[in-house]
Design brief:
Layout lengths: L10 H15 L5 E5 L2 E8 L1 H7 L1 H6 L6 E4 L6 H13 L8 H11 L2 H46 L3 H12 L18
Parallel strand pairs: 1-3
Antiparallel strand pairs: 1-2
Length: 189
């Protein structure tokens, strides 16, 4: 039997966006996270949002009131900031913080974040590998073009002065790569 209900796919995104906005303004937050190692830094959040994303936090939160004092050695204020941003927005951390965030995500059982970081690593590795392969292929093509143009120049241009002019004009075109730069061209009389 067909269903009459239709789901608005942006509903969850809109809800989290609004909750994040409230978090930024300090509205309707029912907990304040504090790292025992950095007691001066406080992080506002919603217990239900934290519990929805982390089974570890879901088990810790009921034991605390509004102030949640976290004694978790793998968390720094910077890492917790990034984790909260991910929980509320889905934004992945900068690559410079990826290791620390991945470790914290593992300990807090933030499976979606672990999967997203694993996927990003895989894609970047494949792109880097493909980039290296493309660079090798382009180097071969450039060298072949260089050999072709130089043999053409040496066979057609009779003296060094004209060859230098040809060489300079080649350097200014987009058609021939700048792999001619600094190349010594033997001229035989």
């Amino acid at each position: 039997m067909p269903s009459d209900s239709v789901t608005n796919l942006s509903h969850g995104f809109t809800l989290l966006k609004e909750l994040n906005s409230q978090r930024g303004m300090g509205q309707f937050c029912d907990c304040v996270l504090q790292l025992r190692t950095h007691p001066g830094r406080l992080f506002l959040a919603h217990k239900s949002v934290l519990a929805a994303f982390s089974p570890v936090l879901a088990s810790l939160l009921p034991r605390h009131g509004a102030l949640v004092d976290l004694n978790l050695p793998y968390l720094t204020p910077e890492t917790l900031d990034v984790l909260l941003d991910y929980i509320y927005t889905g934004a992945l951390p900068p690559r410079s913080q990826e290791e620390a965030v991945l470790s914290a995500a593992f300990h807090l059982q933030l499976e979606q974040l672990q999967q997203a970081l694993g996927w990003r690593r895989k894609v970047l590795t494949e792109v880097t590998y493909a980039d290296a392969e493309c660079n090798q292929i382009l180097t071969v093509i450039q060298c072949n073009q260089k050999k072709h143009w130089m043999s053409l120049a040496l066979s057609v241009i009779p003296n060094e002065r004209e060859l230098t002019g040809f060489y300079l004009s080649l350097q200014t075109t987009d058609q021939v790569m700048p792999c001619f730069a600094g190349m010594k061209i033997p001229i035989s009389d």
